[in-house]
Amino acid sequence: MKYQQLITDILSNIGGKENILSATHCMTRLRLTLADKSKVKEEAIKKLDMVMGVVNNGTQTQIIIGPEVSRVYKEFIQFTGLNAEAQINENLDKPQDLKTELKNKKGNLLTRFFETVAGIFNPIVPALAGAGLVRAILTIAVVLGLDNTSNTYNVINTIANGIFTFLPFLLAASAAKQFGMNRYVALTICAAMMSSTWATLLADGTSTYSFLGIPFTVVNYSSSVLPMVFAVWFASYVEKLFDKIIPGALKIILVPCLTMLIATPVALITIGPIANWIGLRLADVFNLLFEKGGIFAGMIYGGIYSSMVVLGIHHGMVPVLTQGISTQGFNYLSPASGSANMAQAGAAFGVWLKAKSKKTKTIAASATVAAVTGVTEPAIYGVNFKFKKPFLAAAIGGACGGAFASCFALKAYAMGGPSFLNFAMFIGEEPSNVWLVMAAFAIAFVVSAVLTYVFGFDEEKA
To answer: Which helix or strand (DSSP H or E) is residue 304 part of?
Structure first.
């Protein structure tokens, strides 16, 4: 086994394999749920070869390894005899009901909130990113001569835009899993809210309707984001309530029936219209900030984004990004956050140039490559945040790149991890947009690398 020594060392510093309840991994981290977290020797683990850092809070002990983590995990499972679990996308815990959350939150309800947001939106990001790439390919095809009135164009355009039209269905399925309710009941509620009945009423000029004499605003929920999330959240508690009080033999019929009859009207009358209004206003606020704030908007967002990542609150921006893409076809935030990502890559590159330790150089090189492709965890936790000064340099570089991006009002036309590799998400109606975004990324990278090299860092104190 190639990684046997690493695995043995990890086990000896977490209380042995008998202390592990479950093990999984994401793109960069080995994630362990332990019976007794007090047995974890963080400093000893951090000193191991290949280990870039340790995050030992929340419900998991996360050991940052980098791109090799999937291979390490495979041998880890073989060595320990644990059951293999599917790779996860982000720093997520298993769905829990509100009562369990309140017991486990330990004063950290805000963190739980952002983890829940991530748990809902991250699973659908690949589909959004894929559709965005299709849209970019279509734009390039038109520039190269494809007739935008042809059948071929219409088919590809339908493929690109279909996910945004029916985005609520994806959100309903993802939210149902996160909130622990029957996915198909959630999709049925979504279907009722997405019914063509409401679009037809709006087309006929009818903006209000009623249920049992209670008036409500008619909304076309196509492409909406927040309404379905909150509708499913409410429905999950209705379902749990009826599941507790209805006898076993009747559950299969009455629980879904009563859940639909109660949750759907409530969503149509109150939750849906309010959440829709909030989502639209959030998108408007950020658009206004970037349209009127000039370079300062991008400077601030690009400068603080990496700190938001460290705190986990960057997940809270995903609904805003999704709302912008689905309703207006672009957002202003991703070029600035992408600058912050590339600044982390630049700072890690500066560490590689300056470092004297072979281990530090190896980790920094790997982290730089990962960050350039949009995976910044190894750079943030394994290099820059650990040495402190490079993280500050990255904040300055991100601010510079973000300022450049907002100065030219640069846009992202698709979802995804903004990076040099994922340039297609910036291809849209304005041909120069993608090149200017790449320039913003380059500025962030170079400024961070130079500042890191000039101001240096103390390898011994890390």
So the answer is: helix 295-311
The two tokens of residue 205 are 């000029």
In this prediction, residue 90 carries a pLDDT of: 46
The answer to whether the CB of 290 falls within 8 A of the CB of 409 is: yes
Contacts of 407 (CB under 8 A, 6+ apart): 294, 295, 298
Q: With 50 as the cut, is the pLDDT of residue 95 above it?
A: no
Which residues are within 8 A (CB) of 130 and not within 5 positions of it... i.e. 6 or more apart?
none
| CA 50 – CA 40 distance, rounded (Å) | 18
Q: Using alpha carbons only, what angle is made at residue 140 by residues 123 and 417, rounded to the nearest 5 degrees? A: 25
3-state percent helix, strand, coil for the chain, nearest multiple of 5: 70, 5, 25
User: CB atoms < 10 A from the CB of 220, how many?
Assistant: 16
Q: What is the helix (H) or strand (E) element at residue 198, kind and residue range?
A: helix 196-203
User: DSSP states of 84-143 as a string?
Assistant: P----SSS------HHHHHHH-TT-HHHHHHHHHHHHHGGGHHHHHHHHHHHHHHHHHHH
Domains of the chain: 4-88 (3.30.1360.60), 168-289 (no CATH), 293-455 (no CATH)
Residue 180 Rama label (left phi>0; alpha psi -120 to 50; beta)? left
Q: Which two tokens stand for residue 57?
A: 């809070």
- 32 with 18: CB under 8 angstroms? no
What 43-46 contacts at long range (C-beta under 8 Å, 24+ apart), as own/partner pairs, is 44/13, 45/9, 45/10, 45/13, 45/14
Give the pTM: 0.63
User: pLDDT of 361-410, one tens digit each?
Assistant: 888 888 888 888 877 877 887 788 888 899 999 999 999 999 999 999 89
Q: Is the pLDDT score of 462 beyond 80? A: no
Q: What is the pLDDT of residues 281-295, one digit of tens each?
A: 877 787 788 878 888
Q: Count of CB atoms within 10 A of residue 281's CB? A: 11
Q: List pLDDT tens digits, range 329-357.
A: 788 888 998 999 999 999 999 999 988 88
Rg of the chain over CA atoms, in angstroms? 24
190 given a catalytic annotation: no
DSSP per-residue codes, 312-331? TGGGGGHHHHHHHHHHHS-B
Angle at 213 between CA 212 and CA 219, to 5 degrees: 90
